[in-house]
Automatic annotation (TrEMBL):
Domain of life: Bacteria
GO biological process assignments: phosphorelay signal transduction system
Positions of post-translational 4-aspartylphosphate modification: D60
Domain Response regulatory stretches: 9-127
Protein name as annotated: Response regulator receiver domain-containing protein
Cited Pfam families: Response_reg
Keywords: Phosphoprotein
């Protein structure tokens, strides 16, 4: 069962509106009710973060203006975001992205799934973690869901 009592607000930063819709469907599949804010690029993301820090950030790698790699780098250099989990959510398959985002301080890496059910299971794992009591930085071998 997901630990959603602590998670009320998330941001999904992704320029692909269809992917955001699929993400929302996956949340609905597992009956997770949270406020979802959408940033279509890195600039919009940082505007949103300055207004309110979410309980979890789901971050795509390939976005216009400021890409996900630049975003995670900037986020982890700013102590205001030390307790904000950053979950990479991307269609990118390059192993170098996995290693780079791990090294830069992302908490988990989700490859966009082939099905809504598969994505829902991965999201359920993210929501089952008690992020408020501890930040999770798994070993690289367990970084990709």
């Amino acid at each position: 069962m997901a630990n959603t009592s602590m998670i009320e607000d998330i941001i999904i930063a992704d320029d692909d509106k269809e992917e955001v819709f699929i993400f929302t469907l996956a949340l609905n599949d597992i009956s997770i009710k949270v406020k979802i804010r959408h940033a279509q690029d890195g600039k919009t993301l940082f505007d949103m973060l300055r207004q309110q820090i979410p309980d979890i950030l789901f971050l795509d790698i390939m976005m216009p203006c400021t890409d996900g790699i630049s975003c995670i780098r900037e986020i982890r250099q700013d102590s205001r975001y030390d307790e904000m989990p950053v979950i990479m959510l991307t269609a990118a398959r390059q192993g170098s992205y996995i290693e780079t985002t791990y090294r830069l301080g992302a908490n988990l890496f989700i490859r966009k799934a082939d099905s809504i059910a598969d994505l829902a299971e991965k999201i359920k794992k993210v929501f089952s973690i008690d992020w408020k009591s501890q930040m999770v930085y798994p070993p690289l071998a367990n970084f990709v869901l």
